[in-house]
Write a structure and sequence with these properties.
alpha/beta, two-stranded antiparallel ribbon, disordered C terminus
Length: 337
């Protein structure tokens, strides 16, 4: 049952954006040792487009291993804390290198120990996920101290650097001239766009691959017919992360109910349980309702593209306080009257 419950996550479907990012990442890793300066690559895209999965798969293929002469960590992979500091990031990296004293010492002491451990562990690449946290959206400022520290770390350690994050992470590079100068052109991972024929065909192909895996265990409605494919697109906004979440929930529900079938109604329930949208989809459409006939109109596609996007920031006007009248001004007004 455990294996079936994980069948969606374990079905890796390398679509074109995923393959492009994976190949660029593997190329950077292969040439990390022979480069005269650190190779740096940014993988950028909206939430749920598969950026983290690209990093995770590469890190898994180059997993840490205990060797006779010690621990070998070819890729040091960490997720950026919400408000990164040199101390917090260095501690996460030391922990990734299995340092039992990862939280001990000053900032300088941690940095020196980190460089030593990376050298001893044969680290060739540092991966930083959620790189957008280097940019404070509230103050619209880049954490320059942490970014500068990271630049010096990869320079001194002579390792490749890969970062992944939301589009706002580009501000970190654009506002840090020295860091930007080390980066190659970014790899963008967009959501699927139904209006583009290539995207549409690839999305249908992905559904077919999931159908093949799931149909080994369940009698289910076909996912890759034209009607069902568009329903799935409307329900997920073309985001791979939402597609896998929604299908995984359908599998979990079937297993807990002891069912070997997944119907259209089951997909509707799974969708309601998993896909978040700032604009209620019930007011737009019910993508898995038998009564709904869907047509890819420009208006509908525009609304579907909002799935997964954050609500726009509300900027409230400041309250204008009434300035108190100074005593001498008050007296002048009385005299004038």
């Amino acid at each position: 049952m455990v294996a079936i419950a994980s069948i969606v996550e374990n079905t890796l479907i390398p679509h074109s954006a995923f393959e492009k990012a994976s190949k660029r990442l593997a190329q950077c890793l292969r040439h990390a040792d022979g480069s005269s300066e650190p190779i740096c690559l940014a993988i950028v895209g909206e939430s749920r487009t598969g950026k983290s999965r690209v990093l995770e798969e590469c890190a898994a293929e180059n997993a840490p291993a205990r060797q006779p002469d010690g621990l070998n960590v070819p890729i040091l992979y960490v997720k950026t804390p919400s408000k990164p500091t040199v101390k917090s990031l260095a501690e996460l990296m030391l922990k990734g290198l299995q340092d039992p004293r990862f939280d001990a010492g000053t900032e300088n002491a941690k940095t020196i120990r980190l460089r030593t451990l990376m050298r001893n562990a044969g680290t060739r690449m540092v991966m930083i996920d959620d790189f957008q946290h280097f940019y404070d959206k509230g103050s619209h400022k880049v954490m320059h101290h942490v970014a500068d520290w990271l630049k010096i770390l990869v320079d001194d350690s002579k390792v490749a650097l890969t970062v992944a994050g939301l589009p706002t992470c580009q501000a970190v590079l654009e506002q840090n001239e020295q860091l930007a100068g080390r980066f190659l052109s970014p790899v963008f991972m967009p959501r699927f766009d139904w209006a583009k024929e290539a995207d549409r065909e690839e999305f249908v192909g992905i559904l077919g691959a999931f159908q093949e895996s799931l149909s080994e265990h369940f009698d289910m409605v076909p996912l890759d017919t034209p009607d069902m494919a568009f329903r799935c697109y409307c329900g997920t906004g073309g985001l791979m992360g939402y597609l896998t979440k929604f299908l995984r929930q359908a599998v979990w529900n079937a297993l807990e109910d002891g069912r070997k079938t997944i119907t259209l109604a089951d997909l509707a329930l799974a969708h309601d349980q998993t896909v978040w949208s700032r604009e209620s989809l019930s007011s737009v459409l019910a993508p898995f309702s038998r009564q709904v006939q869907l047509s890819p109109t420009p208006e509908l596609l525009t609304r579907i593209h909002r799935i997964g996007l954050p609500a726009p920031e509300i900027i409230r006007p400041r309250n204008r306080r009434t300035q108190p009248i100074m005593p001498e001004v008050s007296q002048q007004l009385l005299c004038a009257s």
